[in-house]
Amino acid sequence: MIASKKHVMTLLGLVLTVAAANVFAFTGQKLAGEAKISIEQARATALKAYPGKITDEELERENGGSGLRYSFDIRQGKVTQEVGVDGVTGKLLENAPEGPNPD
Length: 103
Hints:
alpha+beta; 2 helices
């Protein structure tokens, strides 16, 4: 019985570690405190602009808008679209097919 509890606790710890890693998985986490909108809000805006599966996401400093931008690569079929959302205003900055030299 004690061994079972030990296994359950180990498994629970592993699950919580993986879940926490996914919460902070996007590149640019250090900039998140400067953003006025959350990554969840930015994801919703991006997926509304181009529905599909997000394959990459990051928060970065980039020219245009407020200078703080969430960038998403969204795949739909064989096409990958790059969608940019301003990290301060939440406005859509870009919605275009990903170029031949992805970041």
